[in-house]
Design a protein that fits this description.
The complex is a heterodimer of chains A (about 280) and B (about 300). Chain A has about 280 residues and is mainly alpha-helical. Chain A has 11 helices and no strands. The radius of gyration of chain A is 22 Å and the shape is elongated. The chains are: A mainly alpha (about 280), B mainly alpha (about 300).
Chain lengths: ~280, ~300
Protein backbone atom coordinates (compact mmCIF):
# COMPACT_ATOMS: atom_id res chain seq x y z
CA UNK A 1 0.00 0.00 0.00
CA UNK A 2 1.40 3.42 -0.93
CA UNK A 3 2.06 6.05 1.76
CA UNK A 4 -0.66 8.28 0.30
CA UNK A 5 -3.23 5.49 0.39
CA UNK A 6 -2.20 4.51 3.89
CA UNK A 7 -2.56 8.14 5.02
CA UNK A 8 -6.01 8.41 3.41
CA UNK A 9 -7.13 5.16 5.02
CA UNK A 10 -6.00 6.27 8.47
CA UNK A 11 -7.67 9.66 7.92
CA UNK A 12 -10.95 7.99 6.94
CA UNK A 13 -10.78 5.69 9.96
CA UNK A 14 -9.96 8.56 12.34
CA UNK A 15 -13.14 10.38 11.26
CA UNK A 16 -15.34 7.60 12.64
CA UNK A 17 -15.73 7.76 16.43
CA UNK A 18 -16.82 4.10 16.69
CA UNK A 19 -13.68 2.97 14.89
CA UNK A 20 -11.48 5.18 17.07
CA UNK A 21 -13.15 3.78 20.21
CA UNK A 22 -12.68 0.22 18.88
CA UNK A 23 -9.01 0.89 18.16
CA UNK A 24 -8.61 2.21 21.71
CA UNK A 25 -10.24 -0.96 23.12
CA UNK A 26 -7.97 -3.22 21.04
CA UNK A 27 -4.95 -1.14 22.06
CA UNK A 28 -5.93 -1.41 25.71
CA UNK A 29 -6.25 -5.20 25.48
CA UNK A 30 -2.85 -5.43 23.77
CA UNK A 31 -1.28 -3.29 26.52
CA UNK A 32 -2.92 -5.42 29.21
CA UNK A 33 -1.60 -8.60 27.56
CA UNK A 34 1.92 -7.16 27.24
CA UNK A 35 2.02 -5.80 30.79
CA UNK A 36 0.34 -8.85 32.38
CA UNK A 37 3.20 -9.56 34.84
CA UNK A 38 3.05 -5.97 36.12
CA UNK A 39 -0.75 -5.58 36.08
CA UNK A 40 -1.91 -8.89 37.54
CA UNK A 41 -2.33 -8.50 41.32
CA UNK A 42 -1.95 -12.25 42.05
CA UNK A 43 -0.31 -15.34 40.61
CA UNK A 44 -2.81 -16.55 37.98
CA UNK A 45 -2.13 -20.27 38.54
CA UNK A 46 -1.38 -20.58 42.27
CA UNK A 47 -4.42 -21.99 44.13
CA UNK A 48 -5.51 -20.49 47.44
CA UNK A 49 -7.75 -22.94 49.25
CA UNK A 50 -8.67 -20.30 51.86
CA UNK A 51 -10.24 -18.07 49.20
CA UNK A 52 -12.29 -20.47 47.10
CA UNK A 53 -15.20 -18.93 45.12
CA UNK A 54 -15.05 -15.59 46.95
CA UNK A 55 -17.30 -12.89 45.45
CA UNK A 56 -15.75 -9.65 44.15
CA UNK A 57 -14.22 -7.65 46.99
CA UNK A 58 -11.54 -5.01 47.65
CA UNK A 59 -8.85 -7.74 47.68
CA UNK A 60 -10.10 -9.79 44.73
CA UNK A 61 -11.78 -7.19 42.50
CA UNK A 62 -13.47 -9.77 40.24
CA UNK A 63 -13.69 -12.55 42.81
CA UNK A 64 -11.91 -15.91 42.91
CA UNK A 65 -12.44 -19.20 41.13
CA UNK A 66 -13.07 -22.78 42.33
CA UNK A 67 -9.55 -23.19 43.72
CA UNK A 68 -9.16 -19.63 45.03
CA UNK A 69 -7.27 -18.12 42.09
CA UNK A 70 -7.85 -14.43 41.44
CA UNK A 71 -10.24 -14.03 38.47
CA UNK A 72 -8.82 -10.60 37.51
CA UNK A 73 -5.26 -11.96 37.37
CA UNK A 74 -6.36 -14.92 35.26
CA UNK A 75 -8.33 -12.58 33.01
CA UNK A 76 -5.26 -10.37 32.50
CA UNK A 77 -2.98 -13.33 31.73
CA UNK A 78 -5.70 -14.95 29.63
CA UNK A 79 -5.60 -11.91 27.32
CA UNK A 80 -2.23 -13.18 26.09
CA UNK A 81 -3.61 -16.54 24.98
CA UNK A 82 -6.65 -14.97 23.35
CA UNK A 83 -4.77 -12.26 21.47
CA UNK A 84 -2.06 -14.68 20.37
CA UNK A 85 -4.75 -17.08 19.20
CA UNK A 86 -6.32 -14.24 17.25
CA UNK A 87 -3.13 -13.08 15.55
CA UNK A 88 -0.98 -16.19 15.00
CA UNK A 89 -3.51 -18.36 13.10
CA UNK A 90 -4.45 -15.42 10.88
CA UNK A 91 -0.77 -14.65 10.21
CA UNK A 92 -0.26 -18.30 9.35
CA UNK A 93 -3.23 -18.28 6.96
CA UNK A 94 -2.08 -15.03 5.30
CA UNK A 95 1.52 -16.22 5.02
CA UNK A 96 0.41 -19.43 3.28
CA UNK A 97 -2.33 -17.86 1.17
CA UNK A 98 -0.10 -15.21 -0.45
CA UNK A 99 2.32 -17.57 -2.26
CA UNK A 100 -0.37 -20.17 -2.96
CA UNK A 101 -2.82 -17.50 -4.18
CA UNK A 102 -0.15 -15.97 -6.42
CA UNK A 103 0.75 -19.39 -7.78
CA UNK A 104 -2.87 -20.32 -8.35
CA UNK A 105 -4.07 -17.03 -9.79
CA UNK A 106 -1.01 -16.01 -11.78
CA UNK A 107 0.24 -19.35 -13.04
CA UNK A 108 -3.23 -20.82 -13.67
CA UNK A 109 -3.52 -24.17 -15.43
CA UNK A 110 -3.76 -27.52 -13.67
CA UNK A 111 -2.07 -26.19 -10.54
CA UNK A 112 -4.81 -23.58 -10.16
CA UNK A 113 -7.39 -26.32 -10.68
CA UNK A 114 -5.89 -28.56 -7.98
CA UNK A 115 -5.46 -25.73 -5.44
CA UNK A 116 -8.99 -24.49 -5.98
CA UNK A 117 -10.61 -27.93 -5.75
CA UNK A 118 -8.83 -28.55 -2.44
CA UNK A 119 -9.88 -25.06 -1.28
CA UNK A 120 -13.52 -25.77 -2.25
CA UNK A 121 -13.38 -29.03 -0.35
CA UNK A 122 -11.95 -27.35 2.75
CA UNK A 123 -14.55 -24.58 2.54
CA UNK A 124 -17.31 -27.17 2.52
CA UNK A 125 -16.38 -28.27 6.04
CA UNK A 126 -17.59 -25.68 8.54
CA UNK A 127 -14.82 -23.62 10.21
CA UNK A 128 -15.38 -24.74 13.80
CA UNK A 129 -15.82 -28.40 12.83
CA UNK A 130 -12.47 -28.34 11.00
CA UNK A 131 -10.82 -26.65 13.98
CA UNK A 132 -12.31 -29.15 16.48
CA UNK A 133 -11.45 -32.18 14.33
CA UNK A 134 -7.89 -30.98 13.73
CA UNK A 135 -7.35 -30.06 17.37
CA UNK A 136 -8.72 -33.48 18.37
CA UNK A 137 -6.38 -35.37 16.07
CA UNK A 138 -3.33 -33.15 16.78
CA UNK A 139 -3.85 -33.31 20.54
CA UNK A 140 -5.07 -30.67 22.99
CA UNK A 141 -2.74 -27.65 23.42
CA UNK A 142 -2.82 -23.95 22.66
CA UNK A 143 -0.24 -24.37 19.87
CA UNK A 144 -2.25 -27.11 18.19
CA UNK A 145 -5.45 -25.10 18.61
CA UNK A 146 -3.79 -22.13 16.88
CA UNK A 147 -2.52 -24.42 14.11
CA UNK A 148 -6.00 -25.90 13.69
CA UNK A 149 -7.62 -22.45 13.53
CA UNK A 150 -4.98 -21.27 11.02
CA UNK A 151 -5.59 -24.27 8.75
CA UNK A 152 -9.36 -23.84 9.09
CA UNK A 153 -9.07 -20.16 8.08
CA UNK A 154 -6.68 -20.83 5.17
CA UNK A 155 -9.22 -21.60 2.40
CA UNK A 156 -11.05 -18.29 2.84
CA UNK A 157 -7.77 -16.37 2.50
CA UNK A 158 -6.59 -18.54 -0.37
CA UNK A 159 -9.75 -17.97 -2.36
CA UNK A 160 -9.59 -14.24 -1.69
CA UNK A 161 -5.89 -14.04 -2.61
CA UNK A 162 -6.43 -15.93 -5.86
CA UNK A 163 -9.48 -13.81 -6.78
CA UNK A 164 -7.51 -10.63 -6.12
CA UNK A 165 -4.60 -11.87 -8.26
CA UNK A 166 -7.00 -12.71 -11.11
CA UNK A 167 -8.43 -9.19 -10.94
CA UNK A 168 -5.06 -7.46 -10.66
CA UNK A 169 -3.29 -9.39 -13.42
CA UNK A 170 -5.60 -7.86 -16.06
CA UNK A 171 -4.86 -4.31 -14.89
CA UNK A 172 -3.06 -2.03 -17.34
CA UNK A 173 -0.07 -1.44 -15.08
CA UNK A 174 0.58 -5.18 -14.93
CA UNK A 175 0.35 -5.45 -18.71
CA UNK A 176 2.67 -2.41 -18.98
CA UNK A 177 5.21 -4.08 -16.67
CA UNK A 178 5.11 -7.23 -18.80
CA UNK A 179 5.44 -5.18 -22.00
CA UNK A 180 8.53 -3.53 -20.51
CA UNK A 181 10.08 -6.97 -20.16
CA UNK A 182 9.62 -7.68 -16.46
CA UNK A 183 9.95 -11.38 -15.66
CA UNK A 184 6.89 -13.22 -14.29
CA UNK A 185 8.32 -13.51 -10.76
CA UNK A 186 9.13 -9.77 -10.80
CA UNK A 187 5.62 -8.86 -12.00
CA UNK A 188 4.18 -11.09 -9.29
CA UNK A 189 6.44 -9.79 -6.52
CA UNK A 190 6.65 -6.08 -7.38
CA UNK A 191 3.32 -5.30 -9.03
CA UNK A 192 0.72 -7.87 -7.96
CA UNK A 193 1.77 -8.70 -4.40
CA UNK A 194 1.55 -5.15 -2.93
CA UNK A 195 -1.96 -4.73 -4.38
CA UNK A 196 -3.15 -8.05 -2.97
CA UNK A 197 -2.60 -6.87 0.57
CA UNK A 198 -5.55 -4.47 1.25
CA UNK A 199 -8.32 -7.09 0.77
CA UNK A 200 -6.27 -9.60 2.78
CA UNK A 201 -5.88 -7.00 5.51
CA UNK A 202 -9.65 -6.48 5.70
CA UNK A 203 -10.27 -10.23 5.77
CA UNK A 204 -7.58 -10.59 8.47
CA UNK A 205 -9.34 -8.13 10.75
CA UNK A 206 -12.60 -10.05 10.39
CA UNK A 207 -10.90 -13.41 10.85
CA UNK A 208 -8.98 -12.29 13.97
CA UNK A 209 -12.38 -11.88 15.68
CA UNK A 210 -13.48 -15.35 14.51
CA UNK A 211 -10.14 -16.83 15.61
CA UNK A 212 -10.45 -15.36 19.12
CA UNK A 213 -13.91 -16.92 19.45
CA UNK A 214 -12.64 -20.20 17.96
CA UNK A 215 -9.76 -20.37 20.47
CA UNK A 216 -12.14 -19.62 23.32
CA UNK A 217 -14.47 -22.34 21.98
CA UNK A 218 -11.65 -24.89 21.74
CA UNK A 219 -10.34 -23.99 25.20
CA UNK A 220 -13.91 -24.19 26.51
CA UNK A 221 -14.08 -27.74 25.15
CA UNK A 222 -10.68 -28.55 26.65
CA UNK A 223 -8.91 -28.68 23.28
CA UNK A 224 -7.00 -25.39 23.60
CA UNK A 225 -5.06 -23.88 26.49
CA UNK A 226 -4.56 -26.58 29.12
CA UNK A 227 -5.16 -25.97 32.85
CA UNK A 228 -3.88 -24.44 35.01
CA UNK A 229 -2.66 -21.94 32.37
CA UNK A 230 -5.27 -19.19 32.07
CA UNK A 231 -7.43 -18.69 29.00
CA UNK A 232 -10.83 -17.03 28.77
CA UNK A 233 -12.37 -20.13 27.18
CA UNK A 234 -11.07 -22.53 29.83
CA UNK A 235 -12.17 -20.09 32.57
CA UNK A 236 -15.71 -20.30 31.16
CA UNK A 237 -15.49 -24.08 31.09
CA UNK A 238 -14.66 -24.17 34.80
CA UNK A 239 -17.28 -21.51 35.57
CA UNK A 240 -20.06 -23.60 34.06
CA UNK A 241 -19.98 -25.99 37.02
CA UNK A 242 -20.39 -23.20 39.60
CA UNK A 243 -23.04 -21.02 37.97
CA UNK A 244 -25.30 -20.75 40.97
CA UNK A 245 -22.52 -20.42 43.59
CA UNK A 246 -20.05 -18.20 41.71
CA UNK A 247 -21.65 -16.46 38.70
CA UNK A 248 -18.79 -13.92 38.52
CA UNK A 249 -16.54 -16.74 37.31
CA UNK A 250 -18.59 -16.89 34.10
CA UNK A 251 -19.45 -13.22 33.70
CA UNK A 252 -16.06 -11.54 33.26
CA UNK A 253 -14.24 -13.89 30.84
CA UNK A 254 -17.27 -13.78 28.53
CA UNK A 255 -17.44 -10.00 28.74
CA UNK A 256 -13.74 -9.80 27.89
CA UNK A 257 -14.22 -12.02 24.81
CA UNK A 258 -17.27 -9.99 23.77
CA UNK A 259 -15.45 -6.64 24.14
CA UNK A 260 -12.36 -7.61 22.17
CA UNK A 261 -14.33 -9.40 19.43
CA UNK A 262 -16.77 -6.48 19.11
CA UNK A 263 -13.87 -3.99 18.91
CA UNK A 264 -12.05 -6.08 16.29
CA UNK A 265 -15.28 -6.43 14.27
CA UNK A 266 -15.90 -2.65 14.35
CA UNK A 267 -12.29 -2.08 13.27
CA UNK A 268 -12.73 -4.65 10.48
CA UNK A 269 -15.93 -2.97 9.27
CA UNK A 270 -14.16 0.40 9.36
CA UNK A 271 -11.15 -0.92 7.45
CA UNK A 272 -13.40 -2.52 4.84
CA UNK A 273 -15.29 0.74 4.33
CA UNK A 274 -12.06 2.75 4.14
CA UNK A 275 -10.25 0.40 1.75
CA UNK A 276 -13.17 -0.68 -0.42
CA UNK A 277 -15.43 2.23 -1.45
CA UNK A 278 -17.92 -0.19 -3.06
CA UNK A 279 -18.83 -1.51 0.39
CA UNK A 280 -19.95 1.89 1.67
CA UNK B 1 -27.08 -30.50 -13.03
CA UNK B 2 -23.61 -28.98 -13.56
CA UNK B 3 -23.51 -28.10 -9.88
CA UNK B 4 -24.36 -31.69 -8.96
CA UNK B 5 -21.48 -32.92 -11.10
CA UNK B 6 -19.07 -30.48 -9.40
CA UNK B 7 -20.28 -31.80 -6.04
CA UNK B 8 -18.78 -35.24 -6.67
CA UNK B 9 -15.05 -34.28 -7.00
CA UNK B 10 -15.45 -31.88 -4.06
CA UNK B 11 -16.83 -34.72 -1.94
CA UNK B 12 -14.00 -36.99 -3.06
CA UNK B 13 -11.41 -34.40 -1.95
CA UNK B 14 -13.31 -33.87 1.32
CA UNK B 15 -13.17 -37.62 1.93
CA UNK B 16 -9.40 -37.63 1.24
CA UNK B 17 -8.90 -34.75 3.68
CA UNK B 18 -10.99 -36.44 6.36
CA UNK B 19 -9.24 -39.75 5.84
CA UNK B 20 -5.91 -37.91 6.18
CA UNK B 21 -6.96 -36.69 9.63
CA UNK B 22 -6.23 -40.17 10.93
CA UNK B 23 -2.64 -39.75 9.77
CA UNK B 24 -2.28 -36.70 12.03
CA UNK B 25 -2.55 -38.88 15.12
CA UNK B 26 0.77 -38.62 16.93
CA UNK B 27 2.79 -41.86 16.68
CA UNK B 28 1.29 -45.09 15.42
CA UNK B 29 -2.41 -44.79 14.53
CA UNK B 30 -3.22 -48.31 15.80
CA UNK B 31 -1.62 -47.58 19.18
CA UNK B 32 -3.51 -44.28 19.39
CA UNK B 33 -6.79 -45.98 18.49
CA UNK B 34 -6.20 -48.74 21.04
CA UNK B 35 -5.79 -46.14 23.78
CA UNK B 36 -3.50 -46.10 26.78
CA UNK B 37 -4.67 -49.48 28.05
CA UNK B 38 -4.31 -51.19 24.69
CA UNK B 39 -1.89 -54.15 24.84
CA UNK B 40 0.07 -55.57 21.89
CA UNK B 41 -2.76 -57.93 20.96
CA UNK B 42 -5.31 -55.13 20.95
CA UNK B 43 -3.04 -52.96 18.81
CA UNK B 44 -2.54 -55.85 16.37
CA UNK B 45 -6.30 -56.48 16.25
CA UNK B 46 -6.97 -52.81 15.48
CA UNK B 47 -4.22 -52.81 12.86
CA UNK B 48 -5.87 -55.77 11.13
CA UNK B 49 -9.44 -54.49 11.57
CA UNK B 50 -8.70 -51.05 10.09
CA UNK B 51 -6.29 -52.47 7.48
CA UNK B 52 -3.51 -50.27 8.89
CA UNK B 53 -0.95 -52.86 7.78
CA UNK B 54 -1.82 -52.17 4.12
CA UNK B 55 -0.76 -49.28 1.83
CA UNK B 56 -2.46 -45.93 2.47
CA UNK B 57 -4.20 -45.91 -0.92
CA UNK B 58 -5.71 -49.34 -0.21
CA UNK B 59 -6.77 -48.18 3.27
CA UNK B 60 -8.51 -45.17 1.69
CA UNK B 61 -10.21 -47.28 -0.98
CA UNK B 62 -11.55 -49.69 1.66
CA UNK B 63 -12.69 -46.82 3.91
CA UNK B 64 -14.43 -44.89 1.15
CA UNK B 65 -15.97 -48.07 -0.28
CA UNK B 66 -17.61 -48.77 3.08
CA UNK B 67 -18.84 -45.20 3.41
CA UNK B 68 -20.47 -45.29 -0.01
CA UNK B 69 -22.42 -48.30 1.28
CA UNK B 70 -23.40 -46.32 4.40
CA UNK B 71 -20.96 -48.14 6.67
CA UNK B 72 -19.07 -45.61 8.79
CA UNK B 73 -17.71 -48.32 11.07
CA UNK B 74 -18.57 -48.90 14.71
CA UNK B 75 -18.14 -46.50 17.59
CA UNK B 76 -15.09 -47.55 19.61
CA UNK B 77 -16.89 -46.52 22.78
CA UNK B 78 -20.45 -47.82 22.43
CA UNK B 79 -19.83 -50.45 19.69
CA UNK B 80 -22.95 -49.07 17.95
CA UNK B 81 -22.66 -48.51 14.18
CA UNK B 82 -21.71 -44.85 13.63
CA UNK B 83 -24.37 -44.55 10.89
CA UNK B 84 -27.06 -45.46 13.46
CA UNK B 85 -25.67 -42.88 15.88
CA UNK B 86 -25.80 -40.19 13.19
CA UNK B 87 -29.34 -41.12 12.15
CA UNK B 88 -30.50 -40.88 15.77
CA UNK B 89 -28.71 -37.59 16.54
CA UNK B 90 -29.16 -35.60 13.34
CA UNK B 91 -32.95 -34.95 13.75
CA UNK B 92 -32.31 -33.35 17.15
CA UNK B 93 -29.84 -30.90 15.62
CA UNK B 94 -32.12 -30.29 12.63
CA UNK B 95 -34.93 -29.36 15.04
CA UNK B 96 -32.58 -27.03 16.94
CA UNK B 97 -31.32 -25.45 13.70
CA UNK B 98 -34.88 -25.01 12.39
CA UNK B 99 -36.07 -23.26 15.58
CA UNK B 100 -32.92 -21.10 15.57
CA UNK B 101 -33.49 -20.15 11.94
CA UNK B 102 -37.11 -19.18 12.66
CA UNK B 103 -35.90 -16.91 15.48
CA UNK B 104 -33.17 -15.48 13.24
CA UNK B 105 -35.64 -14.74 10.43
CA UNK B 106 -38.21 -13.25 12.81
CA UNK B 107 -35.62 -10.90 14.32
CA UNK B 108 -33.20 -10.28 11.47
CA UNK B 109 -35.41 -9.55 8.45
CA UNK B 110 -37.76 -6.96 10.08
CA UNK B 111 -34.75 -5.31 11.75
CA UNK B 112 -32.94 -5.15 8.40
CA UNK B 113 -35.99 -3.65 6.65
CA UNK B 114 -36.56 -1.07 9.40
CA UNK B 115 -32.88 -0.20 9.42
CA UNK B 116 -32.75 0.30 5.63
CA UNK B 117 -35.87 2.46 5.55
CA UNK B 118 -34.39 4.66 8.28
CA UNK B 119 -30.82 4.75 6.99
CA UNK B 120 -28.50 6.93 9.05
CA UNK B 121 -31.12 7.58 11.75
CA UNK B 122 -30.78 6.48 15.39
CA UNK B 123 -32.83 3.31 14.76
CA UNK B 124 -30.46 2.28 11.96
CA UNK B 125 -27.41 2.92 14.15
CA UNK B 126 -28.98 1.00 17.06
CA UNK B 127 -30.00 -1.94 14.84
CA UNK B 128 -26.49 -2.13 13.36
CA UNK B 129 -24.98 -2.05 16.83
CA UNK B 130 -27.27 -4.85 18.04
CA UNK B 131 -26.52 -6.91 14.92
CA UNK B 132 -22.77 -6.50 15.42
CA UNK B 133 -23.19 -7.44 19.08
CA UNK B 134 -25.04 -10.59 17.99
CA UNK B 135 -22.11 -11.45 15.73
CA UNK B 136 -19.51 -10.68 18.40
CA UNK B 137 -20.94 -12.41 21.44
CA UNK B 138 -19.48 -15.87 22.08
CA UNK B 139 -22.57 -18.04 21.88
CA UNK B 140 -21.44 -20.54 24.48
CA UNK B 141 -21.11 -17.63 26.93
CA UNK B 142 -24.52 -16.26 25.97
CA UNK B 143 -25.88 -19.75 26.63
CA UNK B 144 -24.27 -19.83 30.08
CA UNK B 145 -25.66 -16.36 30.88
CA UNK B 146 -29.18 -17.34 29.74
CA UNK B 147 -29.00 -20.49 31.89
CA UNK B 148 -27.92 -18.32 34.82
CA UNK B 149 -30.84 -15.93 34.31
CA UNK B 150 -33.74 -18.12 33.16
CA UNK B 151 -32.88 -21.42 34.84
CA UNK B 152 -30.81 -20.61 37.94
CA UNK B 153 -32.21 -17.20 38.98
CA UNK B 154 -35.79 -17.19 37.66
CA UNK B 155 -36.36 -20.94 37.37
CA UNK B 156 -38.58 -20.47 34.31
CA UNK B 157 -36.85 -22.88 31.97
CA UNK B 158 -34.75 -26.04 32.40
CA UNK B 159 -30.97 -25.48 32.44
CA UNK B 160 -30.24 -28.47 30.24
CA UNK B 161 -31.60 -31.67 28.75
CA UNK B 162 -33.82 -32.55 25.83
CA UNK B 163 -37.25 -34.11 25.47
CA UNK B 164 -38.24 -35.33 21.97
CA UNK B 165 -41.37 -33.62 20.58
CA UNK B 166 -43.19 -36.95 20.17
CA UNK B 167 -42.76 -37.66 23.91
CA UNK B 168 -44.00 -34.28 25.19
CA UNK B 169 -44.09 -31.31 22.80
CA UNK B 170 -44.54 -28.74 25.57
CA UNK B 171 -41.44 -29.89 27.41
CA UNK B 172 -39.67 -30.16 24.07
CA UNK B 173 -40.35 -26.46 23.48
CA UNK B 174 -39.07 -25.49 26.92
CA UNK B 175 -35.85 -27.45 26.43
CA UNK B 176 -35.22 -26.18 22.91
CA UNK B 177 -36.10 -22.50 23.51
CA UNK B 178 -32.91 -21.24 25.19
CA UNK B 179 -30.50 -23.04 22.83
CA UNK B 180 -32.52 -21.78 19.84
CA UNK B 181 -32.28 -18.20 21.12
CA UNK B 182 -28.53 -18.62 21.62
CA UNK B 183 -27.98 -19.88 18.07
CA UNK B 184 -30.67 -17.70 16.50
CA UNK B 185 -29.32 -14.38 17.74
CA UNK B 186 -25.99 -14.89 15.98
CA UNK B 187 -27.67 -15.72 12.66
CA UNK B 188 -30.15 -12.85 13.20
CA UNK B 189 -27.19 -10.44 13.10
CA UNK B 190 -26.05 -11.86 9.75
CA UNK B 191 -29.63 -11.83 8.41
CA UNK B 192 -30.16 -8.24 9.54
CA UNK B 193 -27.02 -7.00 7.81
CA UNK B 194 -27.84 -8.80 4.57
CA UNK B 195 -31.51 -7.78 4.62
CA UNK B 196 -30.49 -4.16 5.20
CA UNK B 197 -27.94 -4.23 2.42
CA UNK B 198 -30.37 -5.89 -0.03
CA UNK B 199 -33.16 -3.46 0.92
CA UNK B 200 -30.88 -0.44 0.40
CA UNK B 201 -30.05 -1.75 -3.06
CA UNK B 202 -33.66 -2.36 -4.07
CA UNK B 203 -34.90 0.91 -2.53
CA UNK B 204 -32.50 2.72 -4.85
CA UNK B 205 -33.68 0.81 -7.94
CA UNK B 206 -35.53 2.46 -10.83
CA UNK B 207 -38.75 0.49 -10.37
CA UNK B 208 -39.00 1.65 -6.75
CA UNK B 209 -38.50 5.27 -7.88
CA UNK B 210 -41.21 4.72 -10.50
CA UNK B 211 -43.58 3.31 -7.88
CA UNK B 212 -42.96 6.34 -5.67
CA UNK B 213 -43.47 8.67 -8.65
CA UNK B 214 -46.85 7.00 -9.20
CA UNK B 215 -47.74 7.95 -5.59
CA UNK B 216 -47.87 4.34 -4.41
CA UNK B 217 -48.07 4.50 -0.58
CA UNK B 218 -44.60 4.14 1.00
CA UNK B 219 -45.73 1.08 2.96
CA UNK B 220 -46.63 -0.71 -0.27
CA UNK B 221 -43.42 0.45 -1.95
CA UNK B 222 -41.36 -1.06 0.86
CA UNK B 223 -43.30 -4.25 1.46
CA UNK B 224 -44.50 -5.11 -2.04
CA UNK B 225 -41.91 -3.69 -4.41
CA UNK B 226 -38.66 -3.55 -2.47
CA UNK B 227 -38.93 -6.34 0.10
CA UNK B 228 -39.99 -9.05 -2.35
CA UNK B 229 -36.85 -8.52 -4.39
CA UNK B 230 -34.63 -7.91 -1.39
CA UNK B 231 -35.71 -11.26 0.07
CA UNK B 232 -34.13 -13.24 -2.78
CA UNK B 233 -30.54 -13.02 -1.48
CA UNK B 234 -31.83 -13.37 2.09
CA UNK B 235 -33.58 -16.66 1.25
CA UNK B 236 -30.47 -18.09 -0.34
CA UNK B 237 -28.35 -16.87 2.54
CA UNK B 238 -30.82 -18.60 4.86
CA UNK B 239 -30.06 -21.96 3.24
CA UNK B 240 -26.30 -21.43 3.70
CA UNK B 241 -26.74 -20.22 7.28
CA UNK B 242 -28.86 -23.29 8.03
CA UNK B 243 -25.83 -25.37 7.09
CA UNK B 244 -23.71 -23.29 9.45
CA UNK B 245 -26.29 -23.76 12.21
CA UNK B 246 -26.06 -27.53 11.88
CA UNK B 247 -22.36 -27.29 12.64
CA UNK B 248 -22.52 -24.24 14.91
CA UNK B 249 -24.66 -26.20 17.32
CA UNK B 250 -21.57 -28.04 18.63
CA UNK B 251 -20.97 -25.84 21.67
CA UNK B 252 -24.62 -24.99 22.27
CA UNK B 253 -25.52 -28.67 22.42
CA UNK B 254 -22.63 -29.22 24.79
CA UNK B 255 -23.75 -26.46 27.17
CA UNK B 256 -27.42 -27.44 27.17
CA UNK B 257 -26.65 -31.20 27.15
CA UNK B 258 -28.71 -31.71 24.00
CA UNK B 259 -27.95 -35.14 22.52
CA UNK B 260 -27.50 -33.92 18.95
CA UNK B 261 -25.00 -34.07 16.16
CA UNK B 262 -22.61 -31.53 17.73
CA UNK B 263 -22.53 -33.33 21.05
CA UNK B 264 -21.82 -36.55 19.17
CA UNK B 265 -18.72 -34.86 17.71
CA UNK B 266 -17.52 -33.53 21.08
CA UNK B 267 -18.14 -36.88 22.79
CA UNK B 268 -16.30 -38.56 19.92
CA UNK B 269 -13.34 -36.22 20.45
CA UNK B 270 -13.17 -36.87 24.19
CA UNK B 271 -13.62 -40.62 23.86
CA UNK B 272 -10.97 -40.66 21.12
CA UNK B 273 -13.68 -42.25 18.99
CA UNK B 274 -12.09 -41.26 15.69
CA UNK B 275 -14.57 -43.13 13.48
CA UNK B 276 -17.34 -40.97 14.96
CA UNK B 277 -15.31 -37.77 14.48
CA UNK B 278 -14.54 -38.59 10.85
CA UNK B 279 -18.15 -39.52 10.11
CA UNK B 280 -19.55 -36.36 11.73
CA UNK B 281 -17.12 -34.15 9.78
CA UNK B 282 -17.99 -35.94 6.53
CA UNK B 283 -21.75 -35.69 7.08
CA UNK B 284 -21.37 -32.01 8.07
CA UNK B 285 -19.55 -31.32 4.82
CA UNK B 286 -22.19 -33.22 2.84
CA UNK B 287 -25.03 -31.27 4.52
CA UNK B 288 -23.20 -28.01 3.91
CA UNK B 289 -22.61 -28.79 0.22
CA UNK B 290 -26.22 -29.88 -0.29
CA UNK B 291 -27.54 -26.74 1.42
CA UNK B 292 -25.27 -24.62 -0.79
CA UNK B 293 -26.74 -26.41 -3.78
CA UNK B 294 -30.22 -25.73 -2.40
CA UNK B 295 -29.28 -22.05 -2.03
CA UNK B 296 -28.33 -21.93 -5.72
CA UNK B 297 -31.57 -23.64 -6.73
CA UNK B 298 -33.62 -21.26 -4.55
CA UNK B 299 -31.85 -18.30 -6.12
CA UNK B 300 -32.67 -19.66 -9.56
CA UNK B 301 -36.33 -20.29 -8.65
CA UNK B 302 -36.82 -16.96 -6.87
CA UNK B 303 -35.22 -14.71 -9.49
CA UNK B 304 -37.07 -14.89 -12.84
CA UNK B 305 -34.22 -12.94 -14.53
CA UNK B 306 -31.88 -15.90 -14.00
CA UNK B 307 -34.40 -18.29 -15.54
CA UNK B 308 -34.73 -15.95 -18.51
CA UNK B 309 -30.98 -15.74 -19.02
CA UNK B 310 -30.53 -19.51 -18.89
Amino acid sequence: MSDARRYLTVKKLARRPMVVAAAAVVGAFVLVALAAPQLAPFDPVAPNLLAMRKPPSAVHRLGTDEVGRDVLSRLIWGARASLLAGVIPVSLAVALSIPLGLLSGYAGGWLDGVIMRVTDAMLSIPFLIVAIALAAFLGPSLTNAMLAIGIAALPTFLRLARGTVLAIKTEEYVEAARALGCSRPRVAGRHILPNMLPPLLVQSSITVAAAIIAEASLSFLGLGQQPPAPSWGSMLNAAQRYLSQAPWMALYPGLAIFCIVMAVNVLGDGLRDALDPRQQ
Amino acid sequence: MRRLVVLVPTLVIVSVLIFSLQKLLPGDAATALAGEEGDTAAVAAIRAKYHLDRPVTVQYAIWVGKIVRGDFGDSLRSRIPVADLIVSKLPVTVELATCSMLIALALGVPAGVLSATRQGRPLDVAANFVALSGLSVPHFWLGIMLILLFAVQLGWLPASGYVPPWDDWRRNLTTILLPSIVLGTGVAGVMMRHARSAMLQTLGADYVRTARAKSVPERLVVLKHALRNALIPVITLGAIEFGRLLSGAVLTEQIFAIPGFGKLLVDGVFNRDYAVVQAVVLVSALCYLLLNLLADILYFVADPRLRGSS
